[in-house]
Amino acid sequence: MGRTRRRWTVVVRGFVAVALVSLAGLIAWTLLRVLAGTASGQDPRFGWPLELRDRVNVLLIGVDVTINNRKQVVPNLARADTLILMSFDPHGRRAVFLSIPRDTRAEIPGHGTWKINASYAFGGVPLTVRTVEHLLGVRIPYVVKLGPQSFARLIDAVGGVWVDVEQDMYYHDWWGDLTIDLKKGRQLLSGHQAMGYARFRKDALGDIGRTHRQQKVIRALFARLREPQTLLRAPEILEVLRTHTQTNLTPQKILTLAWFLRSLPGDRVEMATLPGRFAPLFWDPDWQKVRALVCDWFYGIPADVVARTRVEVLNASGVPGMAREVADRLARFGFPVVRVENAPTLRHETAILSHRADRRVTRAVRAMLGVGSLAHRRTDRGDVDLTVLVGRDYAHRSLLAHRSTVP
Fold first, then answer.
1. Is residue 372 within 8 Å of 365, Cβ to Cβ?
2. CA–CA distance, 52 with 316 (Å, rounded to integer)
3. Rounded Cα gap, residues 210 and 316, in angstroms
4. Alpha helices in 264-391 (DSSP H)
5. Can you give the pLDDT at residue 19?
6. What sign results for the dihedral spanned by CA atoms 24, 30, 34, 36?
7. Cβ atoms within 10 Å, residue 224
8. Domain range summary for the chain, segments of one domain joined by +
9. How far from chain centre, in Å, is Cα 242?
10. How far apart are CA 86 and CA 66, in angstroms?
11. Which of the residue ranges 25-29, 116-120, 189-193, 278-282 would you say has the lowest mean pLDDT?
12. Coil, strand, or helix at residue 60?
């Protein structure tokens, strides 16, 4: 009996070893296939092969369609049905996902005040990104755009997701070519069902309830991705990402973010909806809460530290209005701006000079502006903690962004 048991133990261990080697080989083959010919590029935030070195912001844009009475897609009527700003922070070891309701009142550059989802109809991805940047003051270098069926295909690729559906749901939208028919209770949803659940908005909370359901589906997707057997579906998942999404992230960068996300415990992945309140036709942001959330989630600094940092902004670019633009951007975050003037000399590079400001604040200001060198100089400036010298590099970037969105 003992000899037979030992033989079976050897057989089982051998089988497990072969399975693990096969799985490792499959994963390695998949990664090599995807990463072949790709490199980290010029972005120092990404290391080779799957190292995330610094914070990365990504805007997820889900686009809807309008169908006419002949079941044809109506061109030029697509809107941003889903907006989620994602931030991956290796220093804080966390990832955050901020849902922006489609009815959020926002200033769309070149078009005035509209619901934020109209930005896509006016100017596609570039204007949508600029509108979210203007709304939140967060620079967004990367975008992932999903079509109406892209998310469903991704859910199917992982084998569906487990979701606790909170109520019976039935809704048919002829113009959006959407039928939702779900029963209450925990169940495994297919891609089409998960998409319908995430898009349902016929309840008391309307679009806000919809964003909460989107977050539930995303959490369910993360849970699925953490399951060991999902690794066997890696080739299918990557193929869906390659063929059914539009993004400026390379395959290597996508895998780096996915690997980082998979390494985080569940409590280090945070989700929220843009703080605000219902208003006629709009979701109005609560700016006090928005500022605190953005400072914490996207810059890693407390809002009270920002409120204590007095700033002067000097225009060294030679382009009128640049200092005021920067001052308005900083004031939107809660910085007390005590002075806005022209600098005595012009300079090419923007400079951020700390007299006694927190180093986290100076780094955050550079991230807000997207340019700038940092310097820390202890001085007797009694009324100023931080000086921003706006250079030609900022003016050039600002003018290019403006031209790309003017109708």
1. yes
2. 34
3. 46
4. 287-299, 303-307, 322-332, 359-369
5. 43
6. positive
7. 18
8. 1-36, 46-297, 301-403
9. 19
10. 27
11. 25-29
12. strand
Is residue 6 over pLDDT 60? no
Whole-number pLDDT of residue 150: 86
**Contact 365/332 with Cβ under 8 angstroms?**
no
Dihedrals phi, psi of 346, to nearest 5 degrees: -90, 155
Q: How confident is the model over 50-69, as pLDDT tens digits?
A: 899 999 999 999 987 655 55
Query: What fold characterizes domain 46-297?
Result: Aminopeptidase (3.40.630)
Quick check: 192 pLDDT over 50? Answer: yes
- How much is the average pLDDT of 84-113? 94
Give the burial string for 6-22 (b: 16+ CB within 10 Å, else e). eeeeeeeeeeeeeeeee
Structure tokens at 152: 């469903």
DSSP structure class, residue 104: B
* CA separation for the pair 353, 314 (Å, rounded): 11
Tokens of 30: 């998949």
CA Rg value for the chain: 24
User: H or E stretch including 145?
Assistant: strand 142-146
Cis peptide leading into residue 49 (ω within 30°):
yes
- Is the Cβ–Cβ distance between 60 and 83 less than 8 Å? yes
Segment (H or E) for 391: none
Average pLDDT over residues 15-44: 50
Query: What single letter denotes the amino acid at residue 197?
Result: Y
Under 8 Å between Cβ of 321 and 302: no
What are the φ/ψ torsions at residue 58 (nearest 5 degrees)?
A: -135, 135
Q: Does domain 301-403 have CATH number 3.30.70.2390?
A: yes
pLDDT above 70 (res 70): no
Q: Are the CB atoms for 223 and 235 separated by under 8 Å?
A: no
349-385 pLDDT per residue, tens? 999 999 989 888 999 999 889 899 999 877 777 799 9
pLDDT reading at 207 higher than 90 = no
Name the residue among 208, 241, 247 with its Cα closest to residue 99: 208
User: The tokens of 124 are what?
Assistant: 């596609």
Positive or negative, the Cα torsion across 236, 242, 246, 248? positive
**How many angstroms separate the CA atoms of 144 and 62, rounded?**
8
Mean pLDDT of the chain: 84
Question: What average pLDDT does the segment 70-82 reach?
Answer: 63
Overall residue count recorded for the chain in this entry: 407
Q: Output the six-digit token pair for 197.
A: 């659940």
* pLDDT for position 294: 94
Tell me 107's DSSP state.
Answer: E
Q: What pLDDT, on the 0 to 100 scale, is given for residue 292?
A: 93
